[in-house]
Specification:
Layout: E1 25-26, H1 40-51, H2 64-74, E2 81-85, H3 87-98, E3 104-109, H4 114-122, E4 125-130, H5 139-149, E5 153-157, H6 169-178, E6 183-186, E7 208-213, E8 225-229, H7 232-239, H8 249-259, H9 262-285, E9 290-293, E10 299-304, H10 307-316, E11 319-320, E12 322-323, E13 332-336, H11 340-356
Parallel strand pairs: 1-11, 3-4, 3-5, 5-6, 6-7
Antiparallel strand pairs: 2-8, 7-8, 9-10, 10-13, 12-13
Bound molecules: pyridoxal-5'-phosphate.
The site of pyridoxal-5'-phosphate has 15 residues, from helix 3 and strand 7.
């Protein structure tokens, strides 16, 4: 293929490569250890729905029943919800809807890659505000940049992936007030945080867009169900470029089945994860040479003196975690919090490595 065929903005892109995983314990992608189909009441509801879902019919373009269920869950109106093929689609729609080539996207770093990638495809300018040492969000600089640049889109990942930090709602409101343009607040991990969602401020800020997902706390990453929450006019704008049939019928059926039992599922999935997270953070903090960054999510970021050696030791113990190449995350490892048993195995590897060092 002639490279000149590619649009200019993507000529330098590296192909998206997921390295082969040979380990059996995979805790590198913040996936839940709990299968939604293992809940008998969810499975029964899903099968009941499937029987009424002919495969030859197109899905409902706006997944009306599902958006109503999600609206009831987060406490807003149906028209204030847009269901997407994963939260990733909502990010894509936000960028496609608001960014022109040359416009500015403001993000903090390190954070989720997808915002910058999607904005770069459009040819937008990505401005990054680095964290303070210790991976804490640089609140003042980020706020100042919003005021100074008036970015076309501002993104705040809250709680942040991969640092695990959450910022208080008052700060999020400072950002919303400072910007005259859309602000995306990514709350993919909110359910693990114990903090309220900024969705409660939907009526106050017409520039607020909140991203949520069923991939993390609800254990539905494979089904690809995420959603955006914003006022109706913004939801209508985001819908302009959406693929008409973005949500397949199976995912809608499954998401509806989980939402019908959302409290039981959350009650089952979240408290054990939080207990295992507390255990992991406490145990790793006690080890010499390991720095643990406080997390309110289902993952914990740690810094070790020799990241490559630790990855090697974890691999030998049949455990795959997330390791980073980026300069600001050197020797950092992100561990997904799953079950107590798996966290104990992780801790044992860290302790053994520390004893050898
Ligand atoms: C996982 C994640 C998402 C959304 O994931 P989907 O599976 O596409 O719903 C969004 N933002 C962050 C920061 C995430 O980690």
């Amino acid at each position: 293929m002639n490279n000149a065929w590619l649009r200019n903005s993507i000529r330098d892109f590296e192909p998206y490569r997921v390295p082969a995983i040979n380990e059996h314990t995979v805790i590198n992608a913040n996936e839940s250890p709990y299968n939604a189909l293992d809940f008998p009441f969810v499975k029964a509801e899903f099968l009941r729905r499937l029987e009424q879902t002919p495969t030859y019919r197109y899905p409902d373009p706006f997944a009306e029943e599902l958006r109503a269920a999600l609206a009831a869950y987060v406490g807003c109106q149906s028209q204030e919800v847009l269901v997407g093929n994963g939260g990733d689609e909502i990010i894509n729609l936000v960028m496609n809807t608001f960014l022109n080539p040359g416009d500015t996207l403001l993000v903090h770093t390190p954070t989720f890659d997808i915002y910058g990638i999607d904005a770069s495809v459009i040819g937008a300018n990505v401005v990054e505000v680095p964290n303070l040492p210790g991976f804490r969000h640089d609140r003042q600089t980020f706020l100042d940049k919003v005021k100074e640049l008036q970015p076309k889109v501002t993104v705040l990942c809250n709680p942040n992936n991969p640092t695990g930090e959450i910022l208080p709602l008052e700060y999020v409101e400072d950002i919303l007030r400072a910007s005259a343009n859309p602000v995306l607040i990514d709350e993919a991990y909110l359910e693990f945080s114990g903090q309220d969602s900024i969705i409660s401020k939907l009526q106050t800020y017409d520039n607020l867009i909140v991203l949520r997902t069923l991939s993390k706390a609800f254990g539905m990453a494979g089904l690809r169900v995420g959603y955006g929450v914003a006022n109706k006019a913004v939801i209508d704008a985001l819908s302009l470029t959406k693929l008409v049939y973005n949500m397949n019928v199976f995912s809608q059926d499954m998401a509806l089945s989980v939402m019908a039992h959302r409290d039981e599922v959350l009650q089952h999935n979240v408290p054990p994860t939080i207990a295992a997270r507390t255990y992991l953070m406490e145990q790793l903090s006690a080890i010499d040479g390991v720095t643990v960054y406080p997390s309110v999510t289902n993952f914990v970021l740690v810094h070790v003196t020799d990241g490559a050696a630790m990855i090697d030791a974890l691999q030998k113990a049949d455990i795959c975690v997330r390791f980073y190449k980026a300069a600001d995350l050197q020797n950092c490892i992100r561990i997904t919090v799953t079950t107590q048993e798996v966290m104990e195995r992780v801790v044992a590897v860290f302790q053994k490595e520390a004893a050898h060092a």
